[in-house]
Design brief:
By secondary structure, this protein is an alpha/beta fold. Helices cover 51% and strands 11% of the residues. The protein is built from 12 helices and 8 strands. The strands form 2 sheets. Strands 3, 4, 5, 6, 7 and 8 form a 6-stranded mixed β-sheet that branches. The longest helix has 29 residues, at 243-271. It starts with a helix and ends with a helix. Residues 136-296 form the DDE Tnp4 domain.
């Protein structure tokens, strides 16, 4: 088990976990009881073979389990290295990360103290109530190539990057704050198809009047949502375009790009967590990993914003 001095060093240095000490303290107080409750429920769900209190004791308290998961997500540190750092077996770290990661993913994205968005419907409702503009974009995360012989092996090959990847749709506000990250889909899925599968068209068509900025990969959603999804202008002249049209087209395209650049900044902040730079673990865990990092990033962004307002 990691010593008190090492634990204090991890918590106090934001470069290690990407989170401030106050945010980590909030995570411990919020997730600790939930983890303990689920652990006890898991023990009670199977026949008891030993007396109450018997058996091996945890060598990692919940604080250390949370810190191990945070370091793994932030820097992509292998479980072997974390096991040496925390003085436990590698399987203990694997189990700890596997227990904490879903808890983080279920928290949703924090937009203000006590207000979290967990579904795309809640995001659209929040944007409608606040009158803010949303920005959507898809991003890809490289993953390990599926084993030979799998029927769905080619589904993970991205048509854009020609690499094995999974894709998630990111929603930010006009300031680049992360509001939502969708569960991942294989890399061969088009951005517009992913948005339709998430129900974005129905939510916008039946919901409040919200402006959503998107890139050319979502062209076609505007007509389906009554103009709520705004994409770059279509190019009417493919060859021999007049000079006046080229100038107008470039001006409109750059104006739209400058408005939606904030989502690229939000994605960049997500990719600062090395677990999303390139994932070397199981693809089945990618959805939880993406949503856990989005939860942590949005919580820290909200904490920084509140701190700046108080000063």
């Amino acid at each position: 088990m990691v010593g008190n001095a090492s634990r204090a060093a991890i918590i106090s240095d934001r470069r290690i976990t990407g989170l401030s000490a106050d945010v980590i303290a909030e995570l411990v107080s919020e997730l600790g009881p939930l983890w303990h409750e689920r652990h006890q429920a898991r023990l009670a769900s199977r026949p008891r073979k030993r007396a109450i209190g018997a058996g091996a004791k945890h060598r990692l308290v919940f604080v250390d389990r949370l810190l191990a998961a945070l370091v793994h997500l932030r820097h992509g540190v292998t479980h072997d290295v974390l096991a040496c750092w925390f003085g436990v077996n590698r399987s203990t770290i694997t189990r700890a990360v596997g227990e904490v990661r879903p808890l983080l993913a279920e928290r949703g994205c924090t937009v203000s103290p006590g207000v979290r968005l967990r579904t795309l419907a809640e995001v659209i409702a929040h944007l409608g109530a606040s009158g803010k503009t949303g920005i959507i974009d898809g991003t890809e995360i490289r993953v390990r190539r599926p084993a030979a012989g799998r029927k769905d092996r080619d589904r993970f090959i991205s048509g854009k990057n020609k690499q094995n990847a999974v894709k998630t749709m990111v929603v930010t506000d006009g300031d680049g704050r992360v509001l939502f990250c969708s569960p991942t889909r294989p890399g061969s899925c088009a951005d517009i198809t992913h948005a339709r599968q998430l129900g974005l068209v129905k939510l916008l068509a039946d919901g409040p009047a919200v402006e959503i900025l998107a890139d050319a990969g979502y062209q076609g959603l505007g007509a389906q949502t009554g103009g709520r999804v705004v994409t770059p202008p279509h190019r009417k002249f493919k060859k021999n375009a007049p000079d006046w049209y080229e100038e107008m087209y470039e001006r409109q395209r750059k104006a739209h790009s400058s408005r939606r650049i904030r989502v690229e900044h939000g994605i960049a902040h997500l990719k600062n967590w090395r677990a999303l730079a390139r994932h070397l673990g199981r693809r089945e865990h990618m959805s939880d990993t993406v949503q856990a990092i989005a939860s942590l990033l949005s919580h820290q962004q909200t904490a920084d914003l509140m701190s700046a307002r108080q000063t």
